[in-house]
Specification:
Keywords: Signal
Structural class: mainly alpha
Radius of gyration: 17 Å
Distance between the termini: 38 Å
Protein name: Carboxymuconolactone decarboxylase family protein
Low-confidence stretches: 3-21
Number of strands: 0
InterPro entries: AhpD-like
Shape: globular
Strand content: under 5%
CATH topology of one domain: AhpD-like
Largest sheet: none
Number of helices: 9
Helix content: 55-70%
């Protein structure tokens, strides 16, 4: 709940005063919504208690996909078996892997607020393995980075995750990686922009 309150406050203080560059899939003005888009936005605002923002703006060009993604995120973001603190660590790993500035801009402050050390987030931003992680953070970090970089998870890493979080936790951990990867892909494809004064992740050679 602390993460949810912090995120809501961040949105209220920050996103209301920022103009996000439009990119390839411009934000649709409310007066131009189709009936399906209008319903999708209404459902979003009812469930999330916030205005439509971030990846859901370009996703609204396909309102059915947007609604399905929002619904999936309702569980994975707030109710997963690994908890909201560790899920923030996963999101940062995904944001770094995809060099997704918006995901990083939103979730790095939340991660620190809910208990992830700033030194850990700094290391991830720099592409380094963090030092001083807790056992749970190490399990989640190793599982996520292996999944992204190797397209596979080793038996040792899988066994540690299953022992700690159970089978549901392993499924949820994988799904959080997949969900935020999908959002990152949508924003990267749309060239969704952060504000000009926002800190951007370092670009690494591919």
């Amino acid at each position: 709940m602390n993460a949810i309150r912090f995120f809501s406050g961040l949105c209220a203080l920050t996103f209301s005063s920022l103009v996000i560059a439009q990119g390839r899939l411009p934000t649709i003005p409310p007066e131009q919504y189709t009936p399906e888009q209008k319903q999708a936005v209404q459902d979003f605002e009812t469930v999330r208690k916030a205005a439509l923002r971030g990846p859901f703006q370009p996703l609204l060009h396909s309102p059915q996909v947007m609604t399905l993604m929002r619904s999936t995120g309702d569980y994975l973001r707030y109710k997963s078996a690994i908890g909201t603190t560790l899920s923030e660590l996963v999101i940062l790993v995904v944001a770094r892997e995809w060099t997704q500035d918006y995901e990083w801009m939103v979730h790095q402050p939340i991660a620190v607020e809910v208990g992830i050390k700033a030194s850990i987030t700094d290391a991830i931003a720099q592409g380094r393995r963090p030092q001083g992680m807790s056992d749970d953070e190490e399990i989640v970090y190793d599982f996520s980075t292996e999944l992204h970089k190797n397209k596979h998870v080793s038996d040792h890493t899988f066994a540690r995750a299953e022992k700690r979080f159970g089978k549901q936790g392993v499924v949820d951990l994988t799904a959080i990686n997949a969900y935020y990867t999908s959002l990152a892909m949508q924003m990267n494809a749309a060239e969704y922009q952060v504000p000009k004064d926002a800190k951007r992740l370092q670009r690494f050679p591919r």
